[in-house]
Amino acid sequence: MWLQRFLAATRGVRAPLKQAILGRYRRSGAVLFSDTTLRDGEQMPGATLDPEDKLEIALALEGLGVHSLDAGFPASSESDRAAIRLMVGRVKGPILTALCRTLTADIDAADEALSGLSPRKRGVSLFVGTSPLHREHKLRKSRTELLELIEQTVDYATRKFEIVAFSPEDASRTEPEFLTEVYQVAIGAGATTVGFPDTVGLCTPEKARGFIRHIQDSVANLDRALLAVHFHNDLGLAVANSLACIEEGVQVVQCTVNGIGERAGNACLEEVALALALHQDQYGRAGSIDLSRLRAVSQLVAERTGCPVAPNKPISGRTIFATEAGIHQDGMLKHPDMYLPFRPELVGAEGVEFVLGRHSGRRAVAHRLAALGLSADDPTVERILEAIKSLPKGTVVEEPQLRQLVAQESREPTDSA
Ligand code: KIV
Ligand code: ZN
Fold first, then answer.
1. Closest ligand 1 atom, CA of 167?
2. What pLDDT digit, counting tens, does each position of 159-178 carry?
3. DSSP letters of 112-169?
4. Nearest ligand, measured from the Cα of 172
């Protein structure tokens, strides 16, 4: 909100003043969530979304409290343009940004797709590969040529947009001293955010920290832009890397719901937001995400993309608040926090489920019976438990079967009864 108000208030105001206020914002410490579910997330094979799906997810993300939405890549398809057009005027909270290569045609396409939005609610997100691999084999450009291209296209974008982000694709495999030049040129040309994309997901938290410190120490004009990070999850470290960079002081984290995205996906928004909230003592910085909506948004994205979440996925997995092991069941019946890091309600789940299966204990059986209003003495509970343990592997006893077992074991005399 602060940034949006500031950008609105400073339209047409002298750049130094705008930058001074931006600098104050940088120092304010808030962590801004930039969601890229609808762009990088959709790049996951099979995760294709129709424009209507995208609108529905964008509205859910707005409810979640994300700061900005990577709404799509207008130059890439009619469907992306249609989706952005649907969002314009309907998605009111987050800033909508459109992805562009360093091509004026892409920036023009973004300008058209986002037309009608107030300048403080729309932006472009430019990217170009900067690593030796990209320079030599994809772009066939020297460092100097690339710097010129960045300067010209960022400058071009600033004539149409107040909010201009620039990311050096494959930053984590780019020579650090060249990265410094790239950022300086982009910020000099008017970029209001610069990103650090770990495009192939190779970073470790320590290396990510090293990059951020290097950028902070060497980019002379960094006080004139926000610093964003974008981690892919090829080593399963995207969330850890994002959190490490938050600790180093970056202002923006780019994430996707359910961590979907190219190859192994992106940093999972839910996981970054929850860790940030639960470890305020460590990070000391606020996020804006409404945690109680996390499971619902995750479910919506899973349904619309057709990419289900694993049952044990943190925050949104089906079984993460279900316990079958007798020792855990007993402990959690004594105190709900015994084997939980946080209460299920925090992320919008209903509560703990005591699953009855081969590993269960008698306390859970008694608990489930009581919840159904059924009573059974201790020997009967014991017999029910024995019956459950002898059921085929993987059986989970649901209510009808439990009622049957109660009826059966209550009337069956045993040797010890
Ligand atoms: O991973 C990446 O490098 C990207 C760019 C488009 C920023 O998604
Ligand atoms: Zn990416």
1. 7
2. 999 999 999 999 999 999 99
3. HHTTTS-GGGEEEEEEEE-SHHIIIIII---HHHHHHHHHHHHHHHHHH-SEEEEEEE
4. 1
